[in-house]
Amino acid sequence: MARPQLDALDVKILNLLLDNARRPFLEIARECKVSGAAVHQRIARLQSIGVIQGSQLNINPSSIGFDTCAYIGFFLKDPSKLNEVVDRLKQIPEVVECHFTTGRYDLFIKLYAHNNDHLLSVIQEKLLGLGLARTESLISFKELFNRQLPISTQE
Q1: Which residues make beta-bridge pairs with 131?
Q2: What is the pLDDT along the chain (155 residues), one digit of tens a residue?
Q3: Pairwise CA distance, residues 139 & 116, whole Å
Q4: Which sign, positive or negative, has the C-alpha torsion 41, 43, 45, 48?
């Protein structure tokens, strides 16, 4: 699939939305010196071509009692069961990301737990029954930054 071409107005709109996804279209229109309808049409087009894939509310996990962030690499006993394992991982609310990777692991996940005891419980009670040969876990002490990719018209 060809990569969509973004012009300067698309880039400006995207950067304004990255700064504040709740910014009203009319405010964006004023900053871009175009009509509100033009901004609405551009955003609709960016959604339809897959550049914008939605919006989300970001909650600080520790503010709701999830103080432990862990990354776990999976080695599957039977790699042909990948889709089944992924479907089962989707049912575990603590798992927030799952990646099919090259290299060392078959799958790599990110999860949040209340504390280390809860993490151990998730691993023992929810993950080990998925058909894993073994796992390797990394605990994040602190997220130092998290950001979106920069948007520009240049490669």
Answers
A1: none
A2: 678 889 999 999 999 999 898 999 999 999 999 999 999 999 999 999 999 998 888 899 999 999 999 999 999 999 899 999 999 999 999 999 999 999 999 999 999 999 999 999 999 999 999 989 999 999 999 999 988 888 876 55
A3: 9
A4: negative
Length of the chain: 155
Model pTM above 0.85: no
